[in-house]
Predict the structure.
Amino acid sequence: MRGMRCPKCGSADSKVTDTRVSVDCVKRRRTCLTCGYRFSTVECVVVDSPYVVKRRGEVVEFDGNKIRKSLIRAMDKEQCSEDIIGKMMSKVLAKVRETKSDRISSQAIGAIILDELKLQYPVAYMRFASVYKNFKSAGEFASECKLIDESSLP
Ligand SMILES: [Zn+2]
């Protein structure tokens, strides 16, 4: 592979001496043809997430840790196992990555999270919604509660 320069002399000519393939990575041992230095290159599969457009239009890198933190904050302590949060995270991430565009609004991410919480964790849903939807009055909060009750009816 040209362009992979020797870290010692900068030459782009190297010989592959060994190739290891794992599930999502390929590691190649190389020897520089100019100076004989040995090094490895690794090629990995990285799943791209869209950029996040914040309320004020600011575009930031997608940050799964932020989502994880807000989930943990919303969930009851006794519900909040690594297992449950992990499963929620992979569902949310899968939906975020379904986005065709390379950008997604923070509101859209919030809506995805609310969707995941709604049926299984109504209390966490309300907590998350109160931050996300920025309820201005107790009345708004109450009408949202009513909505939840109705949607959980058979
Ligand atoms: Zn070299």
In short: Residues 1-46 form one domain.
